[in-house]
Amino acid sequence: MNIEEASKILQLISDQNRLTIVILLTKNKKMSGSEFLKSISCKQSTLSHHLNEMVDAGLLSCKKKGNKVLYSLNNAKYAQLLAFLGKSVNEAPTEKKEEKVVEEPKKEVYRVVDSDIVKPDPVKVELPIYLL
After folding, report:
1. Pick from 15, 40, 79, 106: CA 20 to 30 A from residue 47's CA?
2. What is the pTM of this model?
3. Considering only CA atoms, which of 53, 46, 66 is closest in space to residue 22?
4. CB–CB of 60/45 below 8 Å?
5. What CATH topology corresponds to 3-91?
6. Domain limits of the chain?
7. Residue 51: closest CA among 65, 72, 67, 68
């Protein structure tokens, strides 16, 4: 699985009803449309659209049994997604928090000569103010 496929599936299940479908199928393995309607508050046509989108994406499998259609998670696709996400998390570069060394400002000593401030000579001499 690549990042594009994973992105499409994650976008697909970003809808609250579709995520609820995935959660219900992880618990119940197989469910029919009428069983979903008991747990999801949406119209039957909306549910049908969600289920068809998920089947088309390969996330769900469906089998017709009599007059019912039973849906189940496509475990291979679901496992690929989980493996990809786990792999992505493990391969993600960890941010090393570098301690920033804050340099203290350089102290420059200035002299006052005839009320003008003059930068120090190459040889720095710190004199108390009363000696100036």
Report:
1. 79
2. 0.62
3. 53
4. no
5. Arc Repressor Mutant, subunit A (1.10.10)
6. 3-91
7. 72
